[in-house]
Amino acid sequence: MIGSGYVGLVSGACFADFGHEVICVDKDKSKIDALNGGHVPIYEPGLTELVATNVKAGRLKFTMDLAAAVKKTDAVFIAVGTPSRRGDGHADLTFVYDAAKEIAAAVDGFTVVVTKSTVPVGTGDEVERIIREARPDASVAVVSNPEFLREGAAIKDFKHPDRIVVGTDDERARAVMSGLYRPLYLNRSPVMFTGRRTAELIKYAANAFLATKITFINEIADLAEKAGADVQEIARGIGLDNRIGGKFLHAGPGYGGSCFPKDTLALLKTGQDHDTPLRIIEAVVAVNDNRKRAMARKVSHALNGDIRGKTIAVLGLTFKPNTDDMREAPSIPLIAALQDMGAQVRAYDPVGMEQSRAYLKNVAFCNDAYDCAQGASALVIVTEWEQFRALDFARLKDAMVKPVLVDLRNIYQPDELARHGFAYEGVGRGSAG
pLDDT-based confidence at 433, cuts 50/70/90? Predict the structure, then answer.
């Protein structure tokens, strides 16, 4: 497993748990040292225990020596980062292609080279060209096997997937991939074999569609506020239609994280490269970018536009619960906008405090929700951690200057907050009901 980040480490640990022998490779010495010392450098529920179990069983190892790891293996997974390239939004494939060159120099015998990283359509062709140009004698098959792991539920997603997509036309590669995923056949997880380019595009299309659902319900939420309707009831009403489904129809401050923002941009660039404009995705990206910062105006509205010099408490910094990932988190532009308006910001997150310090400046980081609320004129829930679902409102009210709650995830009911003496501002909840 080349790359011991989020995808590589979760995938490697799960494959090892299936009984396969897995070696995770990374160039970051501190990461490898940490893993060999029993410390998992990312937060993912259950991952520390899974890694420890399989290291102890001898099925999972960590190294910086790519050549030794690749030699004599049946399959080599490329699971390195593909961030947005600075300046143009294209996926930066530098790490993928560098890995391909190193793999080419090390393979010995028939080897399946699997691209696990999210890559634009056609990347597998280039990976194969790089390997064959460097090692014309190498016996390899290059396969696309995109990941569909949700941060916070990655182990469950790997072991109980909706589907496994494998892009290859090579029968030997197909046999190897079938063997790797055979333990999942008991769960009746469908393995979908496609062409390599089709598999690459499936991943982008899936993420773009989910981002579109999020953005759609957010725009409906804006209309619901103006029209006096309730977006949660609207989402339920349309989600009960099995052609639509209720998932990803939760109004909020916009999508973030390591996947949707960069993948929608990369898909747009792919469309441009193929002279196929993707107008819906263009709108999704634009609406989502504008929405994150616009959430600060909702906070200002809750305080009648009088925000300068006031203290605002922000609960939840990571882009979603059950992760410490701060990449493209809605909290970042929200806090920046609040600070631009002249507010002082206090913040708390159950897991993401350490990570958030690299993204947020001039913020008072607090010990818990109640410490965060101290002296605040408004409390803003940005990430729907379970720890925030049963807050002690009497305690909060005592700590705050003004009892105002801005609930960007709609986890509370307005009438409940009214009973506790709080002014409440949700998302997409008009006054008429």
Answer: very low
Closest of 391, 287, 377 to residue 341, by C-alpha: 377
Give residue 228's pLDDT: 95
pLDDT surpasses 90 at 72: no
C-alpha 366/C-alpha 394 separation (Å) is: 19
- pLDDT for the residue 218: 97
Q: What is the pTM of this model?
A: 0.93
Rounded to whole angstroms, how far apart are CA atoms 52 and 203?
30
Looking at residues 153-159, what average pLDDT do you find? 96
CA gap 50, 155 in Å, rounded: 9
Judge whether 6-194 and 282-425 match in fold: yes
The DSSP letter of residue 41 is: S
Alpha carbon distance, N-terminus to C-terminus of the chain: 52
Beta strands, E only, 246-359: 311-315, 344-348
Task: Find out whether 45 and 155 touch, Cβ atoms under 8 Å.
Answer: yes
| Whole-number pLDDT of residue 412 | 96
Q: Are 396 and 368 in contact (CB under 8 A)?
A: no
Would the pLDDT of 259 be above 70? yes
**CATH placement of domain 6-194:** 3.40.50.720
- Supply the residues annotated as catalytic: 259
Distance CA 80, CA 102 (A): 13
Closest CA to 380 of 348, 428, 420: 348
Q: What is the mean pLDDT of the chain?
A: 95
- Residue 181's region, left for phi above 0, alpha for psi from -120 to 50, else beta, is alpha
With contact defined as beta carbons under 8 Å apart, do 127 and 115 qualify? yes
Grouping H, G, I as helix, E, B as strand and the rest as coil, residue 141 is: strand
In the chain, where the domains are located: 6-194, 282-425
CA distance 289 to 411: 23
Which letter does DSSP use for residue 429 in this model? B
Residue 432 clears pLDDT 70, i.e. is over it: no
- Tell me the C-alpha distance between 405 and 370, whole Å: 13
Between CA 288 and CA 283 the distance in angstroms is 8
DSSP annotation of 183: G
* CATH no., domain 282-425: 3.40.50.720
Instruction: Find tokens 């401050």 and name the residue.
Output: 253
